[in-house]
Amino acid sequence: MCGIIAYAGHRPAAPVLMEGLRRLEYRGYDSAGIALAQMKNINCFKAPGKLAALEDKLSAAPMPPLAGSGIGHTRWATHGVPNETNAHPHLSNNRRFALVHNGIIENYRELKERLTGLGYAFYSDTDTEVLVNLIEEERKNAPDNLTAFCNALLQAEGAFALALLCLDEPEAIYAARQNAPLVVGLGQGENFIASDLTAFLAYTRTVIFLEEGEIARISPRDCALADLRTLAPKDYAAQHIEWDVQSAQKGGYKHFMLKEIFEQPAVLRGALAGRINPDAGTLRLPELEGLSRPVRLRIVACGTSYNAGLWAAPLLEQWGGIPCAVEIASEFRYRKPILGRDELVILISQSGETADTLAALKVAAGNPCPTLGLCNVMGSSLARGAELVIYTQAGPEISVASTKALCSQMALLTLLALHWGSEGGLVPPERLKGLLADFAGLADILEKSLPSIAMEVKPLAERAANARNIFFLGRGQNFALAQEGALKLKELSYVHAEAYAAGEMKHGPIALIAPDFLTIALAPPDGHEAKIFSNIQEVAARGGPIIMLGRPDKNARFGREVALWSIPSCPEGFTGFVLLPMLQLLSYEAASYLGKDVDQPRNLAKSVTVE
Ligand code: M6R
Q: Global pTM?
């Protein structure tokens, strides 16, 4: 959680930091602050609430035009309520150090007690204030700031990505990472550090992804890396990033979420480009080179990425011919799973920084099984920690609610199923050719359908918004999409929604059905429809209103409780790619109708880098 940005360069720092914070706000948005080295002082500006509150504060403050270095932070509270005192940056008692922090210092209580004994005063409830005072304390005996910074960090347990401003080196910024992301941006006469490269994409696309236990020092002219433990200098290889700044902007859409939903046809094209040749009926996944065909698959992920795994498991079994289990990372990490050499563990994560998924990776890595990371963010911890990586290439996803990332994950998992299916002879060449042709045509279908889906959804979304409780029902792969529909609606509109495998209703949940309890049933023509139609009848018979996502000709069989929302026609086996944006737009419109903050729902953050 939390976003950090640091700047050292030829421009006034405050606007650069504020722009960076605007792009990082998705990571946390309960308070924000910046610190600037100005006229022999470190000046801090902090405000609770959204970034606009900090902007107001800054516009009222006298700002010398040439403050070239500074640090900034947007917070998702872990220690202490979101107020101005707890907002970052935190200053040390002598005001010579300012620190921003993403992560948790687990032993902060012990450190605080020791520092209190030494006479330090604490004003906030945060672990970060403890750390910055520890740096002040270490500086008393250290030859320089770098040594003091490292000596302090070596006493800290937990996760951190940090940026430190020191009054006696006002041009420089120190940064360190341990179990939280940090990336350095290299510009001309200016350098950057941030939790996520979108924060400085407008200035440079040349980046260094810091490794675990690495420390960086940037100034306007240079950048140096060192090992946190030994202080030994480290070489680095900068990388060029393809993402452009437009892809991290709203581009005329009201919300990032809406833009990201409408980007899904392009995401599909991007996922397939260079991987399939529908004319030749061929499919290549060079990322899997050297991997022998797994005997079993284990997918581990959180949230929407977990739903991607649930959705794909039946495909990996039916087309791929490989048994597949799907697990929630926060559960998996505390089990002692038995993972053999012939089992492939696939970890799915948009950000590649989700703490539970990374912990699951560690658990898997302690076994003889190979690991494959499926993730969107280049250079992320998952991408670097897994043995094999497939990038989903969805482009930056800014809205806290994940949309296009799921579409890209589903596309890649489908390709994996087809790859193993064709390799294992379950999908013969002619069938593969047909499926690849269908798959290649899907982006056009989606592109054509999205505008009408967006129109049709509005009255249905109002019904959902006005419901107190909603069941999302589905069978087979649609149960996974029902889970995703319920998750999206909950997180965006705060309407209570739960997903059930439709066949489970009769085992208890159907007791809740009443005229004020809405059911949203996913009933595409996929072979399960006869069964789910029966489940819909059972709900209707108890007076429960239903929105059915299905095909028009089937409507005749239902009474007036059932409102049909017609699924655009698309090739068999690929309906999920059309159902998905229908559900996404339903929750988008429901949240908009209720006046909720679509891109930044309450209590959430984009990357969950804490347990
Ligand atoms: O970055 P990840 O894919 O690992 O994130 C996993 C979940 O935190 C994420 O999908 C979350 O559930 C979203 N808020 C869903 O919209």
A: 0.80
In whole angstroms, give the CA distance from residue 18 to residue 194. 12
> Quick count: other Cβ atoms within 10 Å of Cβ 65?
7
pLDDT band at 175 (very low <50, low <70, confident <90, very high): very high
Residue-wise pLDDT tens digits, 432-442 = 999 999 999 99
Report which DSSP code applies to 605: -
Give the mutation target among 608, 609, 610 for probing the ligand 1 site: most ligand atoms within 8 A of CB.
608
> What's the order of all strands across the beta sheet hosting 324-328?
324-328, 296-301, 343-349, 371-375, 388-391
276: enclosing H helix or E strand? strand 276-277
Of 246 and 34, which is predicted with more confidence?
34
Which domains does the chain possess? 3-247 (3.60.20.10), 250-427 (3.40.50.10490), 447-598 (3.40.50.10490)
As for ligand 1, residues whose beta carbon falls within 6 Å of it are 302-305, 349-351, 354, 357, 400-402, 491, 604, 607-608
Q: Give the residue, by CA position, lying nearest to ligand 1 atom 12.
A: 303
Q: How far is the CA of 234 from the centre of ligand 1 (A)?
A: 33
- Evaluate whether 105 touches 156 at the Cβ level (below 8 Å): yes
Q: Which residue's CA is minimally distant from atom 11 of ligand 1?
A: 303
pLDDT tens readout for residues 552-585 = 665 556 777 889 999 998 998 899 999 999 999 9
Arithmetic mean of pLDDT, 246-269: 87
* Residue whose C-alpha is closest to residue 256's, from 405, 368, 98, 111: 405
Q: Which residue's alpha carbon is at the smallest distance from atom 9 of ligand 1?
A: 303
Where in the sequence numbering do the catalytic residues fall?
2, 606
What one-letter code names the amino acid at 119? Answer: G
CA–CA distance, 295 with 280 (Å, rounded to integer): 28
